[in-house]
Amino acid sequence: MSMRYDSSMKIAINYFPRKCRRAGTAVFVLCFASSLLMSFDAEAARPMITDDARMVDAQSCQVESWFRKTPSGNESWALPACNPTGSFEFTLGGGTLHSKGADQTRDLVIQAKTLLKPLNANGWGIGLSLGNVVHSGSELKPKALGDVYVNVPMSAAFMDDTIVLHANAGWLRERSEHIDRATWGLAAESRLNDRIYLVTEAFGRTKDKTQYQIGLRFWVIPDRVQVDTTYGDAFSSPGQSRWISIGVRLLSPPFFR
Question: Using an 8 Å Cβ cutoff, are 189 and 197 in contact?
Fold first, then answer.
């Protein structure tokens, strides 16, 4: 997840219709989501936690990397992914986590993703991803099976793709704690101009606080180089779980031929 965070919030609030601001909480949330969806980029990825029903282009690769700072420390991540056949996207990467007063830890992420129904213009799509996250101390132990997860990303496009919504439903098995959790996410994207996009989402898992983030995505080189930045926090304890992040996404032309 990903610096003008105050500015991003002001931009989002300025899109709210006045009637939404005077409405009840439920209506306000619906207005918030819909007001952010003026237009949509063809690729939904960083900085969202909520996945979408798309994959990197066939025979192509991408690298998503980001730095995230929280009150308790910081994280650095890099997740390369490739789609060699057009049917499956494979991700293998990881992150380094530095927490105040604790040893450095590293995570290894392995994921496979496919589309059960591709997302088309003015249509909907659904995918399936399976993954494993290995947590470790200063030395990775790749043979140790970590947390296992399954996720079903769904996307729907409206008004010639000017409005696109994403929803996730999943399951996570935390092996060290022997706990099963349901996971979920809701996200929206909007285009402010040809290169700048506003993203917003809420996500969570059972027995944890619901979190949100809002940010901006910018194409430095269209369809090849993208940068982003976000501000996030928990709804129930503002300020205690906040983070800021900044990321870079690189996409390759097709070369698996």
Answer: yes
Domains and CATH numbers, the chain: 5-251 (2.40.160.40)
CA dist., res. 32 & res. 20, Å (int):
8
Question: Cα angle vertex 135, ends 131, 137, to 5°?
Answer: 160
| pTM reported for the whole predicted model | 0.78
The Cα 239–Cα 198 span in angstroms is 22
Tokens of 39: 């237009």
> Is the CA virtual torsion 197, 12, 189, 240 positive or negative?
positive
Q: What is the pLDDT of residues 90-113, one digit of tens each?
A: 999 999 999 888 888 899 999 999
Rounded alpha-carbon distances, angstroms, from residue 13 to 8, 144, 158, 159, 210: 9, 46, 23, 23, 20
